[in-house]
Every structure is written in structure tokens, then in C-alpha cells.
Design brief:
By secondary structure, the protein is α/β, with parallel strands linked by helices. A hairpin with a 2-residue loop joins strand 1 and strand 2. Helix content is 41%, strand content 29%. The protein has a 5-stranded mixed sheet with strand order 1-2-3-4-5. Helix 2 runs parallel beside helix 3.
């Protein structure tokens, strides 16, 4: 019985991450909340991406992100640093008002290139088979 009660009292926090790469450019779509509990999932996805591919430009589509705390921002900054070390860039696309406000308050909107939506050229690119 305790098991059922415990499961009911802990909210299920989920973060969905999907990537699509083409020609050294990757769009990473993130859906959910990025916080202390889910940030390791995002960090692991960045680590996998940077280890397995020659990606130099990552556009993170945050239109599905409802909340992002300082832990999430630190993951983005870490990924930006690693991409810059290889001559690349990390860009933010489609942040919702709450995420945009965090970017503005922290000054990170001047660190990242922020787009209203994923750039058109990345939407029309055909992914590698």
C-alpha cells in the first residue's frame, strides 16, 4: 500500500528530447520542464550528440518547454561552451514567455542567439538517412 501512496505523491516529471541532424546542423526539440530533476536527461542528450556527430550548430527548439530553471540554463551554457570549443554555436528557438523572461533577466538573451522559431532553412533540410 505504501508503494501506491508514494507513487501518487511524487509527480511524474518528464522531459522529451528529439534531435534531427543534417549537414553539421542539428535541431533539438525539447518538450516539458527543464529543472533539477530533468536537466540530466538534457545534458546526456547533448553529450551523446557532441560525441557521436560532427555537429557544429545546434538550434534548441524550446517552444515546448513550459519551465526552465537555473539548472537547465547551466546545461545550455555548458553545451554552448563545448560547441564553441569546436567552432560551433548553440541557438535558442521559440522560447515561451516564461523561458524568454529567464533569458532576459539573466542576460543570457545576449549570450545565445534567440530566434522566434526554428530557422526556416533547418525546417526544410532533409535529414540524413
Amino acid at each position: 500500500m505504501t508503494r501506491g501512496l508514494r507513487a501518487a505523491s511524487v509527480p511524474a516529471v518528464e522531459l522529451k528530447v528529439s534531435t534531427r541532424s543534417h549537414g553539421g546542423q542539428t535541431v533539438m526539440a525539447v518538450v516539458g520542464e527543464i529543472d533539477l530533476y530533468t536537466a540530466p536527461r538534457l545534458q546526456a542528450e547533448f553529450a551523446r550528440l557532441l560525441q557521436e556527430s560532427a555537429t557544429t550548430r545546434v538550434v534548441i527548439d524550446m517552444s515546448g518547454v513550459e519551465f526552465c530553471d537555473s539548472t537547465g540554463m547551466n546545461v545550455l551554457l555548458s553545451a554552448l561552451k563545448r560547441l564553441r570549443e569546436r567552432g560551433g554555436a548553440l541557438e535558442v528557438a521559440g522560447p515561451r514567455p516564461a523561458v524568454r523572461k529567464i533569458l532576459q533577466v539573466t542576460g543570457l538573451d545576449s549570450v545565445f542567439t534567440v530566434h522566434e522559431a526554428v530557422p526556416e532553412e533547418l525546417l526544410t533540410a532533409e535529414p540524413k538517412a
